[in-house]
Write a structure and sequence with these properties.
Blueprint: H1 9-21, H2 27-59, H3 78-83, H4 86-90, H5 103-112, H6 114-128, H7 151-158, H8 164-171, H9 181-199
Helix pairs in contact: 6-9, 7-9
Amino acid sequence: MLIPECRGAARLRDAIAASAFRGIACDAFLFQIQKDMDVMNHQENSERKIATEDFLRGLELPDSPKAAPRKIEYAVSHEEWLKQDLFERLSRSNFRMRFHLRAADKAYIKEHGMDLIRQHAADIIRKRLAPAEPLHDGKQTPMRGAPHGHPVFLAQHATATCCRGCLEKWHGIPQGRAMTKEEQERVTDVIMEWIRREMVQ
């Protein structure tokens, strides 16, 4: 037995009162009331989750060109969003949070040391990201770590430093021009901070 038109707490209370007035407020009816309330709560939570995901999706253009961003109203501007802590923003992205160092990556880092890994990261940024028009931009960073790739590649995807599009949206570094030395250094710092956090987990 579903309660007609009961899509809000006020209408639900009205339905309970009307049914009680008619003398049909039995245990089965109250059980159905609770069930309908659970359904509404689930729908409200789902809508809230979708709204949150839409908000974040609008700020981060999807990595896949097949997924088009939705046109929605944002709570904050992109400029204000960029001022928020980077790792806090990254933690709200399901895609970014999928990346972690595996045992082979950690072994590689321990074998070579953090100083050499930083040199590798700086070299990768300089060659693959720093030019105004990087070769194969958007596809230049593999999703493989050691032994067939490099831990820095995983760090790049996890920190949105994998292509110029992600750098612009997550770090505010514009596309279409060469990255400055300071920007390259800042991106390298982000990558190494992510690696440092992963190594202690």
